[in-house]
Amino acid sequence: MAFDATWMDTVPHLGQAGRVDEARALASRPGLSFVETSGGRIRMRRGGSTGELSVLMAADGPNVIEHYDRLIPPLEARVDWAVFEPPGTGASAPARGFDFTIDAFTQSCTEVLETVGPRTLVFPCYLGFVGQRIARSRPELVRGLVMPQTPSWSDMQRWADTVDPKRLLRTPVIGQLMLVLRRRDVAATWYRMSTSDPSFRAPFTEAANEAFAFGGCFCLASLMQGYQRGPAPPSTELPVPAAVVWGPRDRTHRQSDPAQSVRGAKVVTMAECGHSPELEDPERFVDWLLRWHRKR
Asked: Which of 26, 168, 211, 234 is deepest in the core (most CB within 10 A)?
């Protein structure tokens, strides 16, 4: 068994835990708070109206809550919304013992969901697998699952080879130290590879740097190492309505087939988008989300 170095990111001042200035993190935007979970103190922002739909959105690092500034206005008048940063993302420093496996993320994210009550989940990329696990184990809490840019499990392995061809991030200790020292560079490179339009790269990078300035986390190495230790998720149909929203202009997923992502899930292609379709074209995404909700 490979050496597990994910613990490094949970030790203050060694990895990425313990660096967050919580006062500054809470002052970043209105409606922010922390939620205590087994995976650590989770930063969450809430707002919107008590309308026809309630959603819980998870940030896919290096995206953080600050990236949702353009998505929140089209949600505000029509949706009861909450967005949070999972452990190891932004101001959500991972707790001691958090091992970055799907099981660990599922436990922490379920605790966040229990705090806000039953919701439609918008869980992008790797978090789509967490959403699937929650939907199978706690279907009474999940009214629907939307998975922006979540591929099949096998395509996720190919994605890892694309973004980490030399396996530096997946090498214990080396990967953790690389992200501690070069978070800003890695995030900027990621946005160059994954966004659909060069105009997104500067604002997306600025939002990530805003979080890094108050000690925000980007534990990509531990995430990749933790996920590769776990088993493949079940391929059976989910017990809740599910959809995969896909941005085909994401260069990191050129070899991924969204139709193979989750059996029975609706595939929605947003042709002009990259890795974060919900953030790159927020008004179109919200319009689709509300239509999808009404048809279920």
From this structure: 211
- Give the class (CATH, top level) of 6-295: alpha beta
Q: How far is CA 150 from CA 30, 116, 129, 242, 268, in A?
A: 29, 24, 8, 12, 12
Q: Dihedral of CA 295/270/159/216: which sign?
A: negative
Residue 236: other Cβ atoms inside 10 A: 10
CA neighbours closer than 13 Å in the CB half-sphere of residue 95 = 15
63-83: pLDDT as tens digits? 999 999 999 999 998 999 999
Q: Which of 38, 253, 91 is nearest to 160 (CA)?
A: 253
Predicted pLDDT at 197: 93
Using DSSP, state whether 208 is helix, strand or coil. Answer: helix
| pLDDT score at 2 | 67
Across the chain, mean pLDDT equals 95
Strands 79-84 and 89-90: unpaired
Distance CA 195, CA 247 (A): 9
In terms of pTM, does the model score above 0.85?
yes
56/277 Cα distance (integer angstroms) = 16
- CA–CA distance, 195 with 188 (Å, rounded to integer): 11
